[in-house]
């Protein structure tokens, strides 16, 4: 369990305020909220990247190890190639070379980046880079993963692969928080956490999202399906003027 109390982070035009909040272990949690509401700030705080803050963060789990995937994967690149980047996540763990190779092969196959192993990170497409950085993040063997908009450039298939992987590790007891702009990812996550203006305004079982859509809509969040339905149902204005009358 992660327990937050009396958290305050002040920036020039922004304040993050969390009075009391707990996140249970062994869940996948979708973090939604409009641009600038504080998602990245919260994930960085949880992974120990924020130096100046007031309040307490307490991980109840004894052997806590956190791993974050940054919103811009370019900021996270350390080595030149896909293979070296994946290896980098494992080198400090004193694992035999054979096991390292097997782990890299397994995860690269899972995320469909096996053909990219020898490629230069700087030559990858943005979506490919996100997949590589996800694989590298998961190789760290943390028990808390904080993923900052990992699906922003992923196609539908890769998004599903990611959430399948998350489901597997959550079943092993890991906790994963995924910031996203895609409301519909609640379909794949256990819980949904909603932020607005630097505050946590809702935290509910994802299965309850549908019955609470009106309330959630007040924060400007909406399913892309709702939007499609709205567009399809909107009346097309009839053309006025000199047309051929039927
Ligand atoms: N170093 C900084 N100095 C001043 N303001 C900052 C700094 N870093 C972030 N902010 C501000 O803090 C607020 C929250 O930023 P944050 O990156 O957490 O939002 P976000 O919810 O992740 O947004 P997005 O969806 O666009 O990624 C923003 O208004 C941002 O401008
Ligand atoms: Mg962000």
- The CATH class label is Alpha Beta
Based on helices, strands and strand pairing, what is the structural class?
alpha/beta
Helicity range: 25-40%
Which assembly state applies to the chains in this document? single chain
Instruction: Supply the number of structural domains.
Output: 1
CATH superfamily: P-loop containing nucleotide triphosphate hydrolases
Q: Which descriptors would you attach to this protein?
A:
246 residues, Rossmann fold, globular, single chain, binds magnesium ion, alpha/beta, six-stranded mixed beta sheet, binds adenosine-5'-triphosphate, three-stranded antiparallel beta sheet
Quick structural gist:
The chain is 31% helix and 24% strand. A hairpin with a 2-residue loop joins β1 (2-11) and β2 (14-23).
């Amino acid at each position: 369990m992660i327990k937050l109390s009396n958290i305050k982070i002040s920036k020039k035009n922004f304040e993050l305020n969390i009075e009391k909040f707990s996140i249970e272990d062994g869940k996948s949690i979708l973090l939604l909220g409009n641009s600038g509401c504080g998602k990245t700030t919260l994930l960085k705080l949880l992974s120990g990247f924020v130096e100046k803050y007031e309040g307490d963060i307490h991980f109840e789990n004894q052997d806590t190890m956190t791993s974050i995937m940054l919103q811009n994967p370019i900021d996270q690149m350390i080595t030149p190639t896909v293979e070296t980047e994946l290896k980098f996540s494992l080198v400090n763990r004193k694992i035999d070379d054979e096991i390292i190779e097997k782990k890299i092969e397994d995860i690269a196959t899972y995320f469909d980046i096996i053909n990219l192993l020898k490629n230069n990170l700087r030559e990858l497409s943005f979506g490919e880079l996100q997949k590589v950085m996800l694989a590298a993040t998961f190789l760290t063997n943390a028990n808390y993963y904080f993923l900052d908009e990992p699906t922003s450039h992923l196609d539908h298939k890769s998004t599903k692969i990611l959430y399948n992987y998350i489901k597997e590790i959550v079943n092993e007891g890991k906790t994963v928080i995924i910031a996203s702009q895609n409301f519909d990812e609640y379909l794949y996550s256990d819980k949904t956490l909603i932020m607005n203006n630097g505050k946590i305004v809702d935290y509910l079982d994802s299965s309850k999202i549908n019955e609470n859509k009106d309330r959630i809509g007040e924060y400007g969040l909406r399913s892309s399906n709702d939007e499609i339905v709205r567009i399809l149902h909107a009346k097309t204005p009839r053309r006025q003027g000199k047309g051929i009358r039927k």
